[in-house]
Amino acid sequence: MQLEQFHYDNKIVKNFLYATILWGVVGMTVGLLLAFMFLFPNLTDGISWLSFGRLRPLHTNAVIFALWVTLFLPVYITLLSAYLKHVCGVTFYLKLIFGDGN
Question: Is the pTM higher than 0.70?
């Protein structure tokens, strides 16, 4: 009796995790700048696009939406593909849904 060999295409999941790291760094860096703006209120005087009112939504959206969405999507994709492969015997074609990365 020969055992079946399974191969998972984790390229898409790895790309999502790279995006998670990128958005995590962006969101946390903007959050750190905002924290320093509380300590030193004159830190960004004269630079209108670095005002607190413009940076706070960037930090909030980067951390909540970009970081957490890109973190949970690869987990969901991996669990769904493993479930469909082992339980249902169906292959989850990630390349048809998300593209092949080329």
Answer: no
